Amino acid sequence: MDPFRLIIDGKKVPAKQCFEVLNPATEKVAGLAPLATKDDLENAVRAARVAQKAWAKETERKRQTACRRIAERIEAHSEELAQLLTAEQGKPLNGLGSRWEIGGAVAWTQYTASLSMPPKILQDNNEGRVELFRKPIGVVGSILPWNFPVLIAIWHIIPAVLAGNAVVCKPSPYTPLTTLRLVELMNEVLPRGVVNCVTGDDDLGPMMSGHPDIGKIVFTGSCATGKKIYASASETMKRLTLELGGNDAGIVLPDVDPKQIAEGLFWGAFINTGQTCAALKRLYVHEDVYEDVCDELVKFARKMPMGAGTEDSAMLGPVQNLRQFEIVRDLVADARGKGRVLLGGDVPAPSSRKQGYFFPLTLIADLDNGDRLVDEEQFGPALPIIRFSDIDEVIEKANDNPNGLGGSVWSRDVTEARRVAARMECGSVWINKHGMIQPNAPFGGVKQSGVGVEFGQEGLEEYTDIQVVFS
C-alpha cells in the first residue's frame, strides 16, 4: 500500500513517517497518511506566503474562473473521491452519504465562485470621496473535522482562495486521505503554493493557531478545541471563524401530523449517523402528540438499514472512530436508567463488540434537562425525546444550554412557528425541517457554538480585512 503524500508548494512531498487510517466499518487499514513535522508545516506556510502575494494581485474574475475549474475537477473525479471518502469516513456511498457530499462540494464551489466583493462608495460629495475595500488577510489556516472532510474543506478553502488568500489546511487524522486528494486536484488548477495540505496528529493544530505568519484560522470542530484555538490565536491577534459544537433543540407544537413530520425529524437527527454539528440533538414534543410522534419516529427508524458504506442498501454507516463510539455508548448507558428506551440502546461491551463501530439507532423517551443525553452533545445515532406542555417553559429549556448553533420548530401554523423561532437562542432556525444549510445563507452559532459565519456574501467577507480610503 503506497502512502499518500503531503501537498506543499504544488508538489507531492513524502513524509519520513506515516500513520494508518482505519475504515470504521471494518477496522482495517484504508490507507497510509503522511505524518507531517514542524518543518513540513513551516515549508507549507512559507510557500503559502510567497504564493499569496502574487495570487492577491490577480483579478477577481480570474480567481472566480479558477474556482469554477476546481468544481469541474471535483466533478470529474467524483466517484473516485466518494469511494475514498466512504473507505475512511464510513458513510454510505448512497443516500445522504459520500456521493451526496461530493455533489454538495461541487455545488458549493460553483455558487461561491459566483460571489463578488466590489469596492463600496460610502461617500462621494463636495466633502470628499470615501471608499471601502476588502483586502485578503494573507495566509489562512484551515483545521478540519472528520465528519464531512470534503464538504467542510470546500467551505474553508474556496472562499479563502476567492478572496485572494493562500491556504494551509490540516485534515483530521481520522479522515485525511480524501482531503489530500482534493487538494491535489485543486493544485491542477491553482498556482503552486496557493493551497497546501499537511496531515498528522493533533500537535499540528496548536502550531498553526500560534503561527505568526498565519493571519486567520478557520476551524470546525468541538467547543473544547475551539476554546484552545481562541486562546492560542490571541497571541498574534488572528482573525477567527470557529464553527463549534451544537446541541440543537427541536420543538414540536401540538398541531402537527406526527406521520407527516416523522421523516423530517429522523433525517434532521440522524443524517451522517448523527455525526453533524447542526443535527437535531434534543427533541421536545408537546404532550398532545407526544406518544404519536414517538410511535411514528420508531416506525420510520426501523426501516433505515445500517451497514458498511459500500453496501447498496445502507442508508446509515458506523460511528467514525472508537473514541466517539465510546462517548455515545456512555451517554446512552446513562440515559437507559432514566428514560424509556423506544429503540436500540443495547450496546455490547467493547470486549464482545463485533467488527466495525456500528452503534444501533437509539430513541429514548421521557428524559428531561439535567439528563446527560439531553445536556451534552452526543454526536451519534441517539436521540432524547422530552415531553412538554407549556410553550414558555419549553423555550426556556431549549435555550438552557451553552451551545446555540441551530434549532427547529415543527407546526402547521408557520406564523406561530416563526414566533417561537424568534425566541430561540441559536444562529439558525428551521421550520418543519432541520439542518438544511445552503450556500447563499450565512451559517454560524451564538453563545459557545462559535465565532463568525460561513457561506454567502457574509461568509466570504470573513476572509478579508477592511480598508477605507478617504480622498
TrEMBL record:
Protein's name in the database: Aldehyde dehydrogenase family protein
Stretches assigned to the Aldehyde dehydrogenase domain: 17-469
Signal peptide as annotated in the record: none
CDD domains cross-referenced by the UniProt entry: ALDH_AldA-AAD23400
Active site annotation, chain numbering: 243
Database matches in InterPro entries: Ald_DH/histidinol_DH (IPR016161), Ald_DH_C (IPR016163), Ald_DH_CS_CYS (IPR016160), Ald_DH_CS_GLU (IPR029510), Ald_DH_N (IPR016162), Aldehyde_DH_dom (IPR015590), LUC3-like (IPR044086)
Cross-referenced Gene3D superfamilies: Aldehyde Dehydrogenase, Chain A, domain 1 (3.40.605.10), Aldehyde Dehydrogenase, Chain A, domain 2 (3.40.309.10)
Keywords: Oxidoreductase
PANTHER family xrefs: ALDEHYDE DEHYDROGENASE-RELATED
Lineage of source species: Bacteria, Pseudomonadati, Pseudomonadota, Alphaproteobacteria, Rhodobacterales
PROSITE patterns: ALDEHYDE_DEHYDR_CYS, ALDEHYDE_DEHYDR_GLU
Family: Belongs to the aldehyde dehydrogenase family.
Pfam assignment, any one: Aldedh
